[in-house]
Amino acid sequence: MKQKDLLYTGKAKSVFRTDVKGRLIVEFRDDITAFDGGKKDNLKNKGSYNAEASAFIFQFLAKNGVKTHFIQMLDPRRMLVRELSMIPLEVIVRNVAAGSIVRNYPFKEGTKLNPPVIVIDYKDDSRHDPMLNDDLIVALKLATPKELAAIKKAALKINALLVKLMAAQGITLVDFKIEFGRAGKTIYLGDEISMDSMRLWDKKTGESLDKDVYRFDKGDVMATYNRVVKRITTTASQKKERAGTTGTSKTKPATATKPKAAVRKPVKKSPGKKR
Length: 275
Ligand code: 5GP
Description:
five-stranded antiparallel beta sheet; 29% helix; binds guanosine-5'-monophosphate
């Protein structure tokens, strides 16, 4: 498998053609941005942390019957994927009110949303990703009603699986954003699921374990990402094994980011979508 021309470059990932039809390479770069690109940095190892988390989650979802574009990791930051024709929708699933839903609607941060709330935005930076509704999605021919139903069903299934996965690691899955694409008539989960695209809170301390650490200068972003990847990718059986070999069931205590957010600070108001 040879990497060929650059096909697309986004804010944090680059996509390359390969010498094999229907296969692309996604490279997770060390760039990190927030607030529509208003805040930008390059943080060492960020790409590989997000790639590792994404790869783990894609494999976990695939084992549970979700069709994803993931094929394999080629190295710590390059992922081989199935080529998809991406649908320009940002499908956001929310279990707890936080972020833009608190800025734009009268929700109190931390309010549980049960059943989960799905919000779908139009992926278009120049328009600041405006929120869509079903009628607009169909009128804009972004998806057929049948596809939209399948996308929502898949989003809720992914949410249920990830809520459980995170809960097992003492993490609340507050919300996350996913994207889908087509290969022939089949819809696959594409893009990434990482600390950049999820909002994660430590169940005990309320501490942010995701890009909010960067957005709102809550601490050492890369130390947080590193710690979260380890936490997410260590399965229960590995934990037991470790406890067995060390003769203790204690896991290493968190060192990096101070558990600041047990009492969550209100987020500054900003117009429209600013991530
Ligand atoms: P919010 O609407 O509250 O800003 O974001 C909701 C969730 O979707 C958060 O977990 C956020 O990280 C994720 N999200 C929303 N838009 C984007 C985006 O354009 N890129 C990425 N990576 N994640 C997004």
